Amino acid sequence: MRNKIDFSPEQRLLLCCARLEVSSDVVSEIESLVHANLNWNQVIAYAAWHQITPMLYRTLSRFIPDHIPSAVKLVFELHIQRYSEQYRQQFHELLHIIERLESNGIPVISFKGPTLARLIYDDLSLRPFSDLDFLLHPSDVDRALRLLESLGYVAPSSRTGKQERYFRRYACQYKIGRHDGEVWIEPHWTLAQRVFAIDLDYQALWQRSIQISWEGTLIRTFAIHDQPLVLCVHGFREQWRRLKWICDIAELLRQNVCFDWSAIFREARLVGCERILRLGLTLANDLLDAPVPDHLVHSPDPQVAALVARIRSNLFQIDLPIHDIWTIDVFHLLGRERLRDKLSYALRTQLAPRLVFFERIPVPDSLFFCYYPIRWIHDYLLLPGWSIWKRAQHE
After folding, report:
1. pLDDT tens for each residue of 143-172
2. How far is it, in rounded angstroms, from Cα 349 to Cα 330?
3. Which residue, among 9, 15, 191, has the nearest Cα to 112 in the 3D structure?
4. Would you say residue 236 has pLDDT above 90?
5. What band does 322 get if pLDDT is binned at 50, 70 and 90?
6. With pLDDT > 70 as the criterion, what percentage of the chain qualifies?
7. CATH classification for the domain delimited by 86-222, as one of 3.40.50.150, 3.60.20.10, 3.30.460.40, 3.30.70.120
8. Which among 298, 269, 257 has a CA at the least distance from the CA of 281?
9. Region of poorest pLDDT, from 230-234, 297-301, 339-343
10. How far apart are the C-alpha atoms of 99 and 110, rounded to whole Å?
11. Measured in whole angstroms, how far is the alpha carbon of residue 195 from the centre of its chain?
């Protein structure tokens, strides 16, 4: 509990409850916190933002059911009732999509969302999700899109040929809603946008992928020993803004899997993601008491400690603006240990055309090269000039 002393009582309560199994020490702290003058509205708001309402209510109802205010209990129950059926419907939709793609010779790796709920939590309702993520081979994307269109998912088609090729190179996914707006899917071909310069060994990830059974259907997902790095890459991209993502790491580590950490770190080191992996493991240990070997969290790398401190200070600032991935962020720069990855990240974020320009400034494919100077003029001449003019107007 020593790692939570700089959090408010409401924040500490979430950290204590965001786990499947609770030790006697943590139960004692929960009891102490609920006897304090808690701001339950703040607790509800934090839980909703971090998407851990089901986990929070599960823990509270197990250990202190008589100390939950009736109004708060009602809010929790209505929330869980509303979304539980939605999660089950989306899960069955995922099974339908996978079956359709696989039967047409298009292999799929499902990850996050309901697959992670099955793999780690063994309960759809405990791991909230808003869309269905799955990985495709890049060569299968076109065929997959045509099949998905027959299921009611139509990808945007307003880009020209060169714009679409550039999009596939720099983006990592489509976000496509079903025609009725009830389900959203995210077909991926990589796990991170190219600007992040995170180049994983996808051939090895596919070769090591496993199949898990749920309700009589086999679902392919990443191997257990690949999950720590996959989850840490996702959390790093998002700057670990939601506690849910740290819970995923912590619960994975609590499954008593005998991880071959030497092999896992060797793989991470080969793709320049050792610091990303160490950061995620350290957060899970620091905030949620996840069982991580001491030599992995007590690292001589000072940047990991600095990044952990930054995440802790921002974790409950739910009104922070979302960072634009097309500009350099110190967090993503310091999170890489290799100089070449830092340089790649800096150059790609600063020089590559933003995808939004394709919609705002359409040009024919013969003039596609113009998007590069357009971006530079917009970002480094017009925007600074506009900012200077706006400041002058207010003086």
Report:
1. 999 999 999 999 877 899 999 999 999 999
2. 12
3. 191
4. yes
5. confident
6. 98
7. 3.30.460.40
8. 298
9. 297-301
10. 12
11. 16
Rounded Cα gap, residues 206 and 171, in angstroms: 20
Q: Could you give the 3-state DSSP secondary structure of residue 171?
A: coil
Sign of CA dihedral 106, 112, 115, 116: positive
User: Per-residue pLDDT tens for 17-49?
Assistant: 999 999 999 999 999 999 888 999 999 999 999
Look up residue 21 and give its amino acid.
Answer: E
Return the domain boundaries, the chain.
1-68, 86-222, 353-393
Burial class (CB in 10 A: 0-12, 13-18, 19+), 80: middle
In sequence order, the β-bridge partners of residue 213 are 218
Contact 172, 189 (CB under 8 A): yes
Region of residue 327 (phi > 0: left; psi between -120 and 50: alpha; otherwise: beta): beta
pTM value is 0.93
Distance CA 193, CA 170 (A): 6
* Residue where the block lists tokens 């008491």: 289
